Amino acid sequence: MRRAAAMIAGFAFAGGAFAQDVPLWELGGGLAAISFPDYRGSDRQREYLLPVPMFIYRGEFLQADRERVRGLLYRSERAEIDISISGSIPTRSDDNPVRQGMPDLDPTLEIGPSLNLKLVQAPRHSLTLRLPVRAVIASDFKSVENAGVLANPSLNLDLKVGEGWKLGLVAGALFADRRLHQYFYGVDAAHARPGRPGYQAASGYSGAQLIASLTRRFDRLFIGGFVKADFLEGAKFVGSPLVERRNNLAAGIAVTYVFLQSQQRVAEPR
Fold this sequence. Notes:
Layout: H1 5-12, E1 21-23, E2 25-37, E3 45-58, E4 62-64, E5 69-75, E6 79-88, E7 108-121, E8 125-139, E9 144-151, E10 154-161, E11 165-176, H2 178-185, E12 204-218, E13 221-231, E14 247-261, E15 265-267
Antiparallel strand pairs: 1-15, 2-3, 2-14, 3-4, 4-5, 5-6, 6-7, 7-8, 8-9, 8-10, 9-11, 10-11, 11-12, 12-13, 13-14
């Protein structure tokens, strides 16, 4: 699932999380140039130049950064449980040749718990196993649809490299139920046509992802970039006529600036 463009940029530019004395909250914005496919498996690649709002809050239980918004339910030296939120932007089917005549893909909201296990925590590197499970809700802002459930176990390696740079590496797999696969890759009989036969998706493996990001903060200025590779070989929906390719590549770069920040300082969560 592709996230909202700002969320994709934000995730990649979050970099590693290493404890330091930082403001409780920060507010800013900037621009991101991003290229990514209409959906995983699509042959249609699009480029965007978008404004990127930035809000960072480092509370004890509620946290928001350039990566995610989450409510922290439990924390110990080696484990966390949180509620995190993500989403995706809409796709107009008439703008995509293989989906013409089909319903549009509405924007989605993903929300659910995640167990995060800190495997390694050192001054210049950290390794975390994240095990999120999220319910997916699709809406055109007139109605709401239960679009299914997904899981995205991943290993997250964060490194301090060079002078002030942070390198993030993520490797993970995706799994989803039949409802979510059908939402993105199913073809009902009413929408079948020559070259696009009807297709009913099954639940299970949804492919794998590799993400690399590099970011640096210069006082109030953030700059960073990311590359994300999707691999669909072996995915349960790979036989869908809507899947045009077995791999995708997304990339982007963003610059954001902090306009306002609190005077209150806290220790940044590790």
